Amino acid sequence: MKYRTFLPICAYFFLFATALHPGQTISTQPVIASGPSTGPTVIVIGFVGGFIKDDDPVHGEVQLAARLRKECAAGVNVETFENHRAVNAHRRILELLDTDHNGTLTVEEKQNARIILYGHSWGTSESITLARMLEKDGIPVLLTVQVDSIAKRKMNDTIIPANVAQAANSYQSHGLLHGDHDIRAADPARTRIIGNFEFDYETSSLRCPQYPWYDHIFVNSHTQIECDPVVWKQVEDLIRANLPPLPAPSAIADAPPSS
C-alpha cells in the first residue's frame, strides 16, 4: 500500500523516534550577516522532517540554515521550523514583509517578496502547504526545494502552486519511506520545474553515524538522503543562486567605519 494514502504505524514510530537525537543546540533565530543590502529582504524558510526539533544540528536542514546565516549577505533572513508549524512560519513571513509595520501588506510589499522554502520528508509537505497559504495571500515564492518528500495525510506535495517561480525535487525510491518521484506545476506557464533528481542508495556505503540504529534498519535510504552532503550541496546551490551576492572583500575593506 502506498505511503501517500496510509502511513504504517511503524513508520510513525520511526518518524517520532527521530525526535530523540542528542546533540548541541543551534539557534534558529534569524541572524543577518554584515554587509550592504542589495535589495529586498530574502526570506529562507526550512522545515525539518519527522518529529525532530527545529534546532537539531544532526539534520541537514538545520546545518544548511546555519551555514546560510553565517555566510550570506545582509538582507537574508534564514529560519527553520518544525513540520507542523506552517502557520507560525506564515505569520513570520507576513511580519517580515510588512516593512512599514502597519499590520497590513500593500501590493508593493507582497510583490517585493523574495521567499525560498525547503525541507526534508514531512518538512517538504509543510513547505508546499506554506506556499499555498502564500498563494492565497497573493505573495510570490521564488523557489521550493523538496528532499525525499513525504506527504502528510490529506496533503498534496506533488503539485506546485502557481505562485512558485521555480521548484526542484530530490528523492530516493527504496525502503519503507521514499519520496515523490514527480513534482508538477499547477501552471507550467508560471512555474519552472528545475528537475526531479533521483538518488540511489541501494549499494551505497554512505554512513550516518549520528542517527539511531533503528533508522538504519527500517528507513535507511530515507536517512541516507537526509545526511548525504551531495544532496545538500545541490539544495544549497539552488538556494544561493537566488540570494544577493556577498560584497567583494575590497568593498568591505573600503567601507567607512561605523560610528
Keywords:
259 residues, two-stranded parallel ribbon, 17% strand, 6-stranded parallel β-sheet, alpha/beta, disordered N terminus
Helix content: 25-40%
Average pLDDT level: 79
Q: Count up the helices.
A: 9
- Rg is 18 Å
The top-level CATH class is Alpha Beta
The coarse overall form would be globular
Largest sheet data: 6 strands, parallel
Q: In the CATH hierarchy, what is the architecture at level 2? A: 3-Layer(aba) Sandwich
CATH topology: Rossmann fold
Low-pLDDT sequence parts: 1-38
Give the H and E element order: HEHEHHEHEEEEEHHHH
Strand order of the largest sheet: 2-1-3-4-6-8
Can you describe this structure in just a few lines?
33% of the residues lie in helices and 17% in strands. It has 9 helices and 8 strands. The protein has helices at residues 9-17, 60-71, 86-97, 107-111, 122-137, 213-218, 220-227, 229-240, 249-254; strands at residues 42-47, 76-81, 114-120, 141-147, 159-160, 164-171, 184-185, 192-198.
Write the layout of secondary structure elements.
Blueprint: H1 9-17, E1 42-47, H2 60-71, E2 76-81, H3 86-97, H4 107-111, E3 114-120, H5 122-137, E4 141-147, E5 159-160, E6 164-171, E7 184-185, E8 192-198, H6 213-218, H7 220-227, H8 229-240, H9 249-254
Parallel strand pairs: 1-2, 1-3, 3-4, 4-6, 5-7, 6-8
Helix pairs in contact: 3-5
